[in-house]
Specification:
- The complex is a heterodimer of chains A (222) and B (215).
- Chain A is mainly alpha-helical and 222 residues long.
- Chain A has a single domain, classed as MetI-like (MetI-like fold, Orthogonal Bundle), CATH 1.10.3720.10.
- Chain A has nine helices and no strands.
- The longest helix of chain A is centred in the last third of the chain and has 37 residues.
- The radius of gyration of chain A is 21 Å and the shape is flat.
- Chain B is mainly α.
- In chain B, 83% of the residues lie in helices and 0% in strands.
- In chain B, helix 1 packs across helix 4, helix 1 packs antiparallel against helix 6 and helix 2 crosses helix 4.
- Chain B is flat and about 70 Å long.
- In chain B, 40% of the residues are buried.
- The chains are: A mainly alpha (222), B mainly alpha (215).
- At the A-B interface, helix 4, helix 7, helix 8 and helix 9 of A face helix 2, helix 3, helix 6, helix 7 and helix 8 of B.
Chain lengths: 222, 215
């Protein structure tokens, strides 16, 4: 058995397009679910215990759903109740829906770890409501949970491979179509694996750099 | 509502999910320990191999990895049917994640105890099994259980090579009953129950361990 990696090299545009689709799908849905997760903070940290409990149950349940099953829900079950999405919208909706539960929980944990004095000081300086959230709370929460968000992005990229099952042409789909056309399964999937590895290592590197930057910012403000 | 026959069909899929995941969990925990031992050991070649393996596999989506094992390994002349390929792929995958947990527990272990063991004339192997392991498995248990829940959630990946597990079964039922909502909804509930049972069992074991440490 000879390995034919030259086929993978020849078909590099397919892999590049697949990688590009993986990156933009995950990037866009990460940003959207960051915003939605931040909006979810209001019920998660509400004064009313019942509101808090309902929101927390919702988030916990969301984190129990396997990604593929959620994809099937959005793509195959929603049309039964009259919501018909094309595959790209379905893919993006699934990624955002799935990731929002995790982002809400990550942001909540960051919020809880924030010293209460910060919020009280912000109030004393006249910050209220949305401005308090935007200027005082969110910047600190985001710096605190930055590394966790990085890990979640890596998780999201790996879950997005399931989208190949609903024929979204992302990286795993590209590898599968190259392997079935030329019958080079090992070469093709190893190439995809290495590309995922590079992508995830890149994110880890950025997270490490930004951690160093965050501690520098914190020190220079202290 | 789901008919009784369809429900039993779904439970059969759940059985495959639970069976394959249990096999992978049982095999993956010692595999993770072995990789962690390689990563923290003295042999530089073994250390490099184990480190690269863990890093590569942890960055690979489970779907891609399952296809690599099932379609890629036969290229070297080793034919496999889907079910064993699924168990092997999930074991190799969870083993890489487990190695990270075991490694953290090994690195955090108190040096003083190991030095004391050496002073008593224990070999590294004896010190590991008699002194270190009985302590680190307690620290490693909660993150290991967390990894088990992640494995169960990633297990629908084995459907892509034709193993009819819970998610695949739900899709089949949705197709022949023309009613996707009850099929996927029931599958969702079954996943919830399986994960809840695992988490409650783990909490119970942790509670027992904590009691024993107090007395």
């Amino acid at each position: 058995m000879t390995l034919r990696f030259e086929i993978v090299l020849k078909e590099w545009p397919q892999f590049a397009i697949g990688l590009g689709n993986t990156v933009w799908l995950c990037g866009v849905s990460m940003l959207l679910s960051l915003v939605l997760g931040a909006l979810f903070l209001a019920p998660l940290t509400a004064h009313s215990r019942n509101v808090r409990r309902v929101a927390q149950t919702f988030v916990d349940a969301g984190r129990c759903v396997p990604f593929l099953l959620l994809t099937y829900f959005v793509y195959f079950a929603l049309p039964a109740v009259g919501i018909i999405l094309d595959k790209w919208t379905a893919a993006l909706a699934t990624l955002v829906l799935y990731n929002t539960a995790y982002m809400a929980e990550i942001l909540r944990a960051g919020w809880v770890s924030l010293p209460p004095g910060q919020i009280q000081a912000g109030r004393a300086f006249g910050f209220r409501g949305f401005r308090l959230l935007r200027r005082i709370i969110l910047p600190q929460v985001l710096i605190a949970v930055g590394p966790v968000i990085g890990n979640q992005l890596i998780q999201l990229i790996k879950d997005s491979a399931f989208l190949s099952i609903i024929t979204i042409p992302e990286l795993t789909y590209a590898a599968n179509s190259v392997q079935s056309y030329y019958f080079v399964p090992f070469e093709s999937f190893i190439a995809a694996t290495l590309l995922y590895w590079m992508l995830c290592s890149g994110i880890e590197w950025v997270v490490r750099r930004s951690e160093r930057w965050a501690s520098f910012v914190r020190r220079s403000h202290a | 509502m789901l008919e009784l026959a369809a429900l039993f069909d779904l439970l059969e899929g759940a059985g495959i999910t639970v069976g394959v995941c249990s096999a992978a969990i049982v095999a993956g925990i010692p595999l993770g320990l072995a990789i962690a031992a390689g990563r923290t050991g003295r042999n530089p070649v073994l250390r490099a191999i184990c480190t690269v393996y863990a890093s590569l596999v942890r960055a690979t989506p489970v779907v891609t990895f399952v296809m690599l094992i099932y379609f890629g390994i036969p290229a070297f002349g080793l034919e496999m049917s889907p079910l064993p390929a699924a168990v092997i792929a999930l074991t190799l995958n969870t083993g890489a994640f487990n190695s990270e947990i075991w490694r953290a527990a090994i690195v955090d272990f108190s040096r003083g105890q190991l030095e004391a063991a050496t002073a008593f004339g224990m070999t590294r192997r004896t010190a590991f099994w008699r002194i270190m392991f009985p302590q680190i498995w307690r620290t490693a248990l909660p993150p290991l259980v967390n990894e088990m829940t992640l494995l169960i959630k990633a297990s629908p990946a084995i459907a892509i090579i034709g193993v009819v597990e819970l998610t695949r079964k739900a899709r089949q039922i949705a197709e022949y009953t023309y009613e996707p909502l009850p099929a996927f909804g029931s599958a969702l509930l079954i996943y919830g129950v399986v994960l809840a049972v695992l988490i409650v069992a783990a909490r119970w074991v942790e509670g027992r361990l904590a009691e024993r440490r107090v007395t």
